[in-house]
Give the backbone structure.
Amino acid sequence: SNRVITIDSKVVLSLKRWYLFQKKHFMSLGNPQQKLVFPSYKGKVKDYNHVTKFLKDCEEAAGLPVLSFHGFRHSHASLCLNAGMSYKVIQERLGHSTLQMTMDLYSHLEPEKKNQELELFSKYANF
């Protein structure tokens, strides 16, 4: 589905740089108004199977565990939770229909977060 999410200033800067690089490339092909963020070299939508194979080849060449694109989504959610984002914000970022779905999928990541929150309470209560 489509949704609007907020991104930090470093990501905005990276996307602006990418936009300028891409605009220069597609101008040379006579298509300076490219609307896709990550198009194929010729400006078309990339084939999912080709991109998946490319990702797997890169991961293997770098000696990394093979992670699917869905794995990146899960990693993003995990990082958001561990950074202290609320489940509600994570739900909205991922597009889950219910807060319960988000909590069911990611609550196993909470043990360290629970300890951190206990420390917050202890500091607040001045124990």
The radius of gyration is 20 Å.
